[in-house]
Amino acid sequence: MEGGQGGSSAPVASNRLSALYDEHYETMVKLAAMYVDDRHSAEEVVQDAFVRLLRGNYRVKPGREAAYLRQAVLNGARSALRRRRVRRLHVPDRPAPVAAAEEGGMHRSERDRILEAVRRLPHTQASVVILRYYLDLSEADIADTLGMARGSVKSHAHRALNKLQKSLGDEYGEPPSSGDPPSVEGPPRSEPTSTPGGDA
Questions:
Q1: Where in the sequence is the domain holding 147, given as residue range(s)?
Q2: Residues with Cβ < 8 Å from 163, sequence gap 6 or more?
Q3: Which of 59, 80, 160, 188 can pair with 9 through a Cys bridge, CB separation 3.0 to 4.6 Å?
């Protein structure tokens, strides 16, 4: 994340933050939901990222606010997923009703397997796959978000897709092509219930 180095960085003005919220909120929720499953948890992660940006804990260069938010959401979502896994070791979740006989049950099962395969990737590879194929970001935007060269983005994507081919290929009959990974739907859409200027 961008620190306070250089004179061109500055706290984000509240009017600029409001515009960022309107423009990027839903996309950030979709990003967080790739790790934490449910929309409520994803929204908490996203709102925390906006609150930190509002409080000025980091001085962000103009034009890099969206990249900062994406990185903050990735870090927050991974932390939330780690906490959830630790909690489940001690207090397992109540088993959900069997959905195989329900319409769409098989689709959800496949979606869950794909998500788990992506989450098992090394952090950087998982981030590249999610940003590239589920948020449809350009290589330049991914490089800016993760602080790496565009060539590194390509290398991480290639290695990640090879791993996904090995882990998902048998289940799907044949490996997904390098340019067309398995599709995962985002969380249900709903209207945001709070603004970045609200209480943390």
A1: 104-183
A2: 121, 125
A3: 59
Question: How far from chain centre, in Å, is Cα 140?
Answer: 17
CA distance 87 to 73: 21
Query: Which pLDDT tens digit goes with each residue over 92-136?
Result: 554 444 443 444 444 667 778 888 899 889 999 999 999 998 899
Residue 33, token pair as written in the block = 């939901």
Tell which residue, 16, 135, 119, 22, has the closest CA to residue 70: 135
Q: Are residues 132 and 65 in the same domain?
A: no
Query: Does residue 179 share a domain with residue 133?
Result: yes
Tens-place pLDDT, residues 50-108: 988 887 766 777 788 899 899 999 999 988 888 776 655 555 554 444 443 444 444 66
121: phi > 0 → left, psi -120 to 50 → alpha, else beta; which? Answer: beta
Element (H, E) at 90: helix 65-90
